[in-house]
Amino acid sequence: MSSMPMQAPDDPGTRKKRLRLWLNLLRTTRAMENRLREDMRLAYDLTLPRFEILAVLQRSETGLRMTDLSSRLMVSNGNVTGIVERLVQDGLAERVPVPDDKRASIVRLTYKGEAVFAEMADVHERWVDGLLSSISGAEADAMIQRLTRVRRAGEGN
Q: Where is each HTH marR-type domain found (predicted)?
């Protein structure tokens, strides 16, 4: 059973337009993600998942437990463990033991990780800006508002 609220049926033309919109959003997102993935690989020999973990860690002042990191990325601990291990090997992140829990550790960026991420984040922002350069600031604001409304309606908020 659907979790979406029941609404009066729209005409078939509107439903088809919304379906085409969804497919267009999906294709556009995938195309942009593929482009960014390739740019990140070529420029930094880095995968997008590694970049995403660095971004989440950068926003955390004290670091995160693996479970918190996984939940913020909405992936399993197993998916994050290998990526974090590679970041630790590369000197971009470190594991710090949790004093009250011998099994747990906090993952945080190293100074090197902070510096490398700062450079990558700036370049990444320029790449995204270039990919979306055909959209004005006002158009971006309007699209953000509409997409936020759609997302919240889907979440039940």
A: 18-152
Q: Is residue 13 included in any domain, yes or no? A: no
Q: Residue 147: which domain range? A: 24-151
Residue 117: CB atoms within 10 Å: 20
Q: Is residue 12 part of a domain?
A: no
Phi/psi for 156 (5° steps) reads 85, 15
User: Strand (E) positions, the chain?
Assistant: 64-65, 93-98, 101-109
Q: Tokens in use for 55?
A: 């971004």
pTM across the whole model: 0.79
123-147 per-position pLDDT tens digit: 999 999 999 999 999 999 999 999 9
Other beta carbons within 10 Å of 138:
8
Is 48 within the bounds of a domain?
yes
